[in-house]
Write a structure and sequence with these properties.
The protein has 229 residues and is α/β, with parallel strands linked by helices. It has 2 domains: 4-103 and 218-228, Rossmann fold (3-Layer(aba) Sandwich); 105-214, Rossmann fold (3-Layer(aba) Sandwich), CATH 3.40.50.1860. It is 52% helix and 13% strand.
Length: 229
Amino acid sequence: MQTIGLIGGMSWESTALYYKLINERVRDRVGKLHSAPLLMYSYDFQEVKDMQYAGRWDEAAASLAETARRLESAGARAIVLCTNTMHKLAPDIVSSVSIPFIHIGDATAQRIRAKGYRRLGLLGTKFTMEEDFYVDRLRAHDLDVLIPPAGERADVNRIIYEELCLGIVAAPSRRRYQEVMAALVARGAECIILGCTEVTMLVGRNDISVETFDTTAIHAEAAADFAIG
């Protein structure tokens, strides 16, 4: 199997899910006591959040690129960035290494298209929902993307940073996400992307009438499949 380099810690709550899901996928596909060969660098997420909210994206890009280079030098044969939001800086990582970068947006879009959906609702951080880097990646796969209105986006974002990234899973927040998803479905969304790697901790397929796509699980499966080859 090939070694995967994981850039995690954004947050560690979801990175722990990556580790679990990748190894479960390898076990299920290969069998016996097999698990994935992994290298991981885990960030201090408070430092990453500070860079995000201060708009210090150049600093963040330089850091992620250097981390990717270090993972490649250590033997990684592909890079997996364990977060949706920081895929804003995916081009900086891609240009810094000579090994494949497994993009969470591509893996998710391919799964959605395989199911025959074209119009989707997107939940994520304010950066993922409001900026072009993620929405345009999905549109490049001929998908129509709906995002919640401003007030709902603020609630979705707040719950991610103030609760889920701290491991807090609260019933009132689940109900709020259910309301936001239902509103997207009422506007024509055929499915929902859980477009933040922590959102799967709060809601899933039983919380809305349409199919949900868990980006954490999809990305982890893509990483495992690459490792297996």
